Amino acid sequence: MISNNSSLRVGCMRIGVCLGISAALVGCTLDVPDEVQRRSSALMNGEAALHPAVGRVFGAGGCTGTVIAPDAVLTAAHCLARPRTDPSIPWEEFIAFPVYFELGDPDTELGAVEHITYSVSIHPDYDTNADRDFYIADEIDGDIAVLHFESLVSNAFVPPATEPPRVGDEITLVGFGNDGPDGPGGLSKIGFAPVAEVTDLNIISYGPLSELRARDDVAAICAGDSGGPSFITGDAGEVLVGVHSTNGAYSSGECGNETWDIRVDRYQAWIDCAVRSHVGEDCSDDKMLGAGGGGGAGSDATAAGCSIAPGNHGHSELFFLGLAVITIARRRRRRRSAKYP
Question: What is the pLDDT of residue 164?
């Protein structure tokens, strides 16, 4: 976990090596850029509509996230991780922080509300320096993260699923990404697609450009939809079954072919732990596997993750006052600037 505090505690990474946090990481918690990147990576074949529990995430780029508890948002890990340019530098220094989450539509009368993260938790199986290629991977692992907030984000939230969907089930895809390879993006869209495959880690559906599509009106994710949800509606209402990870591990990443989601049930136990871990609980490997996952106690027991959590410090009041001033200033600048693309 990476926290919005001047004092940080570092736990052990999955390889069993404890890393220190340099002054560069501590400094970046206060270094809020003048302009956070606003270009999002939108849903193809979706209809323009807002979902009350889905908003925009601004971290390493523009993404989407889902409120899963009043003060927690689930998104994709790669939305928070910049490319690791130097393997000798601890990976924590490549995590974008703070991260912003925006609910609502700035173009409507009600407008949008922006929230600043208090801390972030990234699944320890996610590697910012992985040598794999998402577009030729058999499966995509650990691309999931929880954003934590000090105060209420929304009373409208969707619980994570404890079971996977079945092949043929219709899922609801939501995202703020582009509606094609050349855009435009930045508007919330909602679409539908049947589940085509369920692997140990992923949920796969075929989009409007895939020859394997079940019908012509299916939706698929594009740039900016990353981190967004796939929902299934049952007797008890909506549940979150997938987190958008990539738009085509079979098709070289071309928008409109496939949607690859991280299976939420596979990581349900880790998600529950991460939501509780505002103060840096160690969500170790024996807590990572949900009801639908394999592994168990016999899995790699060293995968304890890296926890960076608040410590005792004497300047938290000044810190959060500073964040409030920054937030007000940013919103004033936004009102004077052009609308998001």
Answer: 96
* Range in 56-60, 253-257, 288-292 the model is least confident about: 288-292
Across 10-19, 31-40, 120-129, 292-301, the highest mean pLDDT is recorded for 120-129
pLDDT-based confidence at residue 41 (cuts at 50, 70, 90): very low
**For residue 232, what are the CA distances in angstroms to 153, 162, 163, 175?**
23, 12, 11, 15
Residue ranges and CATH numbers for the domains of the chain are 2-158+267-336 (2.40.10.10), 170-264 (2.40.10.10)
CB 114 within 8 A of CB 147: no
pTM score, whole prediction:
0.71
- DSSP alpha helices (H): ranges in the chain? 23-28, 268-276, 316-336
d(C-alpha 199, C-alpha 143), whole Å:
15
Q: CA torsion angle for 317, 320, 326, 330 (degrees, to 10)? A: -150
Structure tokens at 46: 């979706």
Rounded-to-integer distance, Cα 141 and Cα 164, Å: 16
